[in-house]
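call fold(seq) -> C-alpha cells
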Amino acid sequence: MLKKTLAGMCGLLISLAACQSPDNAQTEQAETQETTATADTTQQARRPKPENYSFKGVEKKRVYICMDPTDDLFHQKHDCPVLVSCASTFRNLTLPRAVEAFDRYNCETCSADLAYVFDESAVRMETGLGDN
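ret:
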C-alpha cells in the first residue's frame, strides 16, 4: 500500500512538473536580453568637440578610432578592449586629425598618458593666453 501511495505521489509530482509552462524561463530570458539591448543602445551620450588641445610633440602620433557615430574616443593600441568591442569599422589616423576632424578624446584604458593634450592650463601657457 505504501509503494502504491509513493508511486502515486511521484506520478502526481511528475505530472505537475510537466504542466509547468516553459514560457516563464523564456520570458525571463527575453527580459534580460531587452535590458542588455537597452543598456547597449543608451551608451554614453557623445561629448561635445574638444575646445582646448595642443599637439606639441605628438603631431605625427598615429591612433585608432571606431567609426561608430556614438563613439568619441581615440586609442593608441589596436587591441584595446574598448576598441575591440567596437561594432563598426576601425580607422588609423594621426592624433590631430582624430581630435580636430572626428572630435575624439583619449581612451582612459590605453591612452591615459595622452590626457595632457586636453590640459587647458598647458594650452593657455603654450598659446600665451595665461594669466598675465
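The chain has a mean pLDDT of 78.
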